[in-house]
Amino acid sequence: MSVPLSPAVIVGQTVYLSGQLGFDDKFRIVSGGIEAETRQCLMNMGKVLRSVGLSYEDVVKTTVFLTDLDDFDKMNKVYRQFFPKNFPSRSAVKVAGLYGDARIEIEGIATFGHAIRPLSKL
Questions:
Q1: Which of 13, 40, 57, 75 could, after both became Cys, cross-link 22 (CB 3.0–4.6 A)?
Q2: SS3 of 55, please?
């Protein structure tokens, strides 16, 4: 399937990552609930990151779109496996629906060559 978007766009030292759904290699939403979909979204993000020479540690911001906010805690458990420290800033919003009846979509912003220093306390 061809869609009019780029998996990522690089502007200077910043990489804007398109939203990733829980699609497998055959373009089907993975089975197993929100945990499996979250894992697949983030694995798909990892493929894009690696294609430009980056890793999850280079992600500075994510936006998580959920169709059901009751899935938030389950999503967080999986999300933490991919971002165990130096958490990127993040927004999470409820949406009415996602393509292919997905439960979650995750987009991100990453940077080249910058150490991430999260602000832990205000």
A1: 40
A2: coil
List, as one string, the DSSP characters of 9-22: EEETTEEEEEEE-S
Question: In this structure, how many other beta carbons lie within 10 angstroms of the beta carbon of residue 117?
Answer: 7
Is 59 strand, coil or helix? strand
> What's the farthest any 2 CA atoms get from each other in the chain?
45
Q: How far is CA 57 from CA 6, 50, 67, 85, in A?
A: 21, 11, 27, 9
| Spatial separation of the C-alpha atoms in residues 89 and 107, rounded to whole Å | 12
Tally of residues, the chain: 122
- Distance from C-alpha of 58 to C-alpha of 61, rounded to nearest angstrom: 9
**Segment 31-49, tens digit of pLDDT:** 999 999 999 999 999 999 9
Q: Does position 122 have pLDDT exceeding 60, yes or no?
A: no
